[in-house]
Amino acid sequence: RAARALVSLGRPPGGGGGGGGGGVYLMVCTARDRAGARYKVGTAGPGGARGVPGAGADRLCPQVQHNVERLFTRFVEQGKATVRLREPAVDLRLSKANASDLKTFLSALRLAHQGTEAGALPLSTLVPAKNSEVEKPKTKMIITSRRDYPLTKSFPYSLEHLQTSYCKLARVDTRVLCLKKLRKLDLSHNHIKQLPATLGDLVCLQELDLHDNHLESFGGALCCPSLQKSLQSLDLSQNRLRALPLEFCELRALVRLKLDDNELVRLPCRVGQLGRLRCLSAARNRLPFLPSDFRRLSLENLDLFGNPFEQPNPLVPNIQLKIPLTLSECAARATLNHRIPYGCHLLPSHLCQDLGVAKTCQCGSACLSSFIQITVSMNLHHVAHTVVLVDNMGGTDAPVLCYFCSLRCYSQFLDRHLQSNG
User: pTM (2 decimals)?
Assistant: First the structure.
């Protein structure tokens, strides 16, 4: 039966280190048998004895010169190997081992099996395993009070789920940032004001809960490539956020996003890039309208209740047209309309940032700083299957920004709008 075990190679207690008189033993310790079962693998001196497992002690039996019948190492790179012994006739099947450590162990085992004297091998005396070495690694820890928070002890490196809520933490503990196996991190109900950029070093992180803290910003540095690939659920509700960075839309693995009860005055203009997003909640913020890119979302659940949405009025445009167009505007439009590749290796970084937030006209053309902006009403069922009512009046419509690259495009839109409402 499979069990977590510590497998070691060494000399038995009292076996002596010089000349290899005591031979070399392979010992397997488990949580149920920390003293370990011992198997002789190397040659001993004349008249030596070999131990076999038996109730925590060795039973002596006639010496077997070469007790390792065969080593199966085809899958050693995956941390798997099998040691087949002659006496007793058993297979020791190793799996989930560190590949490098397993190779070193097997090399030493081969030397012992080939008759290398125990004194010539860098082996220690075999001792019973510690509890921490054979117990199942702790993968989950939940702390819900400050008095239970560990101040002197480290967090187990094997943790995959860590919750430290109601602990009055003012910052993210640097010890948490060393837990590279974390998949779920819950820091809700604390006093955290700022997130360290190194939070993005948690390459396996799938769920991050920062509900009910004092966050005033979510740094763009957090949207690093590792979190872009792993982070699926993010809860930033009940904080003090006023805006999210443009880089936020690079978190394209997001499936669930909660932004309730903040002070958001806008959503990121490229929010439509979150193609996997299925649940979005941004209730009780200060959103006057939604970005035009919001139309690209395909959600299952959407909650925007309690935002002070403006009444859309297409007849009152915000005109930012520059006639004639500046040279930079012409170049930017041409770059985007013709899909010309660009990057920081070709253009200054501030120009790349400008191109990244370009608007798209109803005709499909791009515009940068020369445009006409209006708000139009959109039924939220166009982007979500289930919609929480926007207000107490039972409405499911919200204002969405709309851009035009020229007077001509805006005039054509007005004609269609007036005809449909005439």
Answer: 0.73
